[in-house]
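User: Could you write out the 3D structure of this protein bound to zinc ion? I've included everything you need below.
Assistant: Certainly. Input first, then the structure.
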Amino acid sequence: MSSFKPGETVVLSQRVRRITAPNPGMMTGPGTNTYLVGNAELAVIDPGPAIHEHIDAILQAAADMRAPIRWILCTHTHIDHSPAANRLREATDAPVIGQIARHPKSQDASFKPDHHWQHGDFIRNDEFTLRAVHTPGHASNHLCFYLEEEQTLFTGDHIMEGSTVVIAPPDGDMLAYMNSLHQLKELPLRYLAPAHGNRIDNPLQIIEALIWHRTLRERKTLEKMQQLGPCTLATLTPSVYDEVPAFLHGVAQMSLLAHLLKLEQDQVVERNDDIWRIRE
Ligand SMILES: [Zn+2]
């Protein structure tokens, strides 16, 4: 278990270093992880929040390595991931790479990528290849980045260490999230490097556990709907999340809505105004 000292550069492998931003919290765990990939020239993955000390720590790490920052990659545009991109671009002239979110509300409005990447787009030099894997679900514009030479996937918020991620509609989409998890099973994976928490050394086990966790929640949703009959989201939430403390039911309600919208897409449930019911 490595510690998370903000600003400290942690060497994770031959090509990967991690610097954690000083933004710990309920949604960010120990803080946002920024990754530096490479030795001779660097790709920065998830520059993080626009906090001076954090940006300085990234620039200092690059200076210590005597390596220029050539690319700035953002997994998605939640405010703990991409706002430092602009200042890092100003300081380095490196292009910013990522996608604009389909639903800009509650996203980093300052995000203006120089390159709008699609699934499969990549950068390559003598040392490494980083390839985009489009993983919508947590966010519509979410990209994971696959470091081929180390079979390591930078998972952003698609997968965090130690907790499940928030799926908040309309930008969050549970059906897309599940499909994105299944898609990752096709990749040869040794490590997952999440934006929050430690490196994950048993990727397939974790991916299967996350799929199972969501599947169980979906089953419980249907069981409770059978018991309650037609119901609103607000009445269903405390039943489906009866093991979760009440102060978290606001977040739980968003996740439950995501489950219900998936079940609606699967044609298992239907909605009439605010009332949800299982389809006949
Ligand atoms: Zn996020």
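The helical segments are 52-65, 85-92, 174-184, 203-228, 233-240, 249-265.
User: Perfect, thank you.
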